């Protein structure tokens, strides 16, 4: 009973920040993302009667108990679906830095959900997989899908109507590009989950975030479907800044940005002044992602590569959803 899946990371263009239910991860707002073609997680899951507990290896290292607990809890959902109480060995590899603001939990739990269900020979459709992945990491619900996806916040208490759906396939807008300059590979001190809880609890700006989110969703959805780059970029950039404003005004403050984050934001604004249309977005972490069109992508990538703050760059297009592969990690 063994299977391997690969899932790409996704970057939200309208962010998800804050939960209405912490236990089964139900969001306060819907969100829209682009699944990337260059940042992925590969995960192998094997259930066996010989195992006495779940074990987890990420990037060749045995994972501490607190992280294994999250994965065990998620495997418990799959065990419940299958009706089989077997422990699992899980091995996972990322081709990008983990927990550094590049959405490794999204690709991680999407790959885990698909591999674990297949290992038990369960055949979930994409909606069911999205609901399952959401309960591991909210943004993982979107990594099930290729191209562009919207995670619907839903209204049901059991979360049955909170899942992602595809807005457009990966080949819908081939000119749209995301340049990701890696500014740090260090794991962030405050995980997104803890940051959200604090923000919802006491940021005076949180209600304003919710009051403007539907308008942002409409503009970004339309921007993608109609390929209106300026509309998409402006809305995504402001949405990210609004999200971070709720964190900055939380007590105690949550400041994910590093000095190099601000340097990169200002560099993107300078590009626009010089006539290169580009926009930035930032998740719960220090990394800046730059949205641009293909005609400017190499120019932008070469420009940021020259900056002393940049350790590595990724050039991403819209990519595949989670899928099974034949090559196991063990």
From TrEMBL:
EC numbers listed for it are 4.1.1.33
Q: Which residues form a coiled coil?
A: 290-317
Q: Which InterPro entries match?
A: GHMP_kinase_C_sf, Mev_decarb, Mev_diP_decarb, MVD-like_N, Mvd1_C, Ribosomal_Su5_D2-typ_SF, Ribsml_uS5_D2-typ_fold_subgr
List the GO biological process terms.
Answer: isopentenyl diphosphate biosynthetic process, mevalonate pathway
Q: Where is the Mvd1 C-terminal domain?
A: 179-310
- Its domain of life? Archaea
Q: Which SUPFAM superfamilies match?
A: GHMP Kinase, C-terminal domain (SSF55060), Ribosomal protein S5 domain 2-like (SSF54211)
Location of the Diphosphomevalonate decarboxylase-like N-terminal domain = 7-164
What is one Pfam family matched by this protein? MVD-like_N
Its family remark reads:
Belongs to the diphosphomevalonate decarboxylase family.
The protein in question is named Diphosphomevalonate decarboxylase
Q: Which organism is it from?
A: Candidatus Iainarchaeum sp
Native organism taxonomy:
Archaea, Candidatus Iainarchaeota, Candidatus Iainarchaeia, Candidatus Iainarchaeales, Candidatus Iainarchaeaceae
Q: Gene name on record?
A: mvaD
């Amino acid at each position: 009973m063994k299977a391997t899946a690969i899932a790409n990371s996704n970057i939200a263009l309208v962010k998800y920040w804050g939960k209405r239910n912490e236990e089964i991860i139900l969001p306060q707002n819907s969100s829209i993302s682009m699944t990337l073609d260059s940042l992925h997680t590969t995960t192998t899951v094997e259930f066996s009667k010989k195992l006495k507990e779940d074990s987890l290896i990420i990037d060749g290292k045995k994972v501490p108990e607190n992280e294994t607990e999250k994965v065990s809890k998620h495997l418990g959902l799959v065990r419940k679906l299958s009706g089989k109480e077997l422990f699992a060995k899980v091995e996972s590899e990322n081709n990008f830095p983990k927990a550094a603001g590049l959405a490794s939990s999204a690709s991680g739990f999407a790959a885990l959900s698909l591999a674990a269900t297949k290992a038990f020979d369960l055949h979930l459709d994409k909606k069911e997989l999205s609901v399952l992945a959401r309960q591991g990491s909210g943004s993982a619900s979107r990594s099930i899908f290729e191209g562009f996806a919207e995670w619907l916040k839903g209204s049901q208490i059991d979360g049955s109507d909170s899942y992602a759906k595809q807005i457009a396939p990966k080949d819908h807008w081939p000119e749209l590009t995301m340049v990701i300059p890696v500014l740090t590979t260090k794991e962030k001190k405050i995980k997104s989950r803890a940051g959200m809880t604090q923000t919802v609890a006491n940021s005076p700006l949180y209600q304003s975030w919710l009051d403007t989110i539907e308008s942002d969703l409409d503009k970004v959805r339309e921007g993608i479907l109609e390929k209106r780059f300026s509309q998409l970029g402006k809305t995504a950039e402001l949405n990210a800044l609004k999200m971070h404003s709720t964190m900055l005004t939380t007590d105690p403050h949550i400041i994910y940005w590093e000095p190099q984050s601000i340097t990169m934001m200002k560099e993107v604004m300078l590009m626009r002044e010089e006539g290169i249309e580009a926009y930035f977005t930032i998740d719960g972490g220090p990394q800046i992602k730059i949205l641009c069109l293909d005609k400017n992508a190499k120019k932008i990538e070469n420009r940021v590569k020259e900056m002393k703050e940049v350790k590595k760059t990724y050039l991403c297009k819209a990519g595949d959803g989670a899928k099974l592969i034949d090559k196991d990690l063990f």
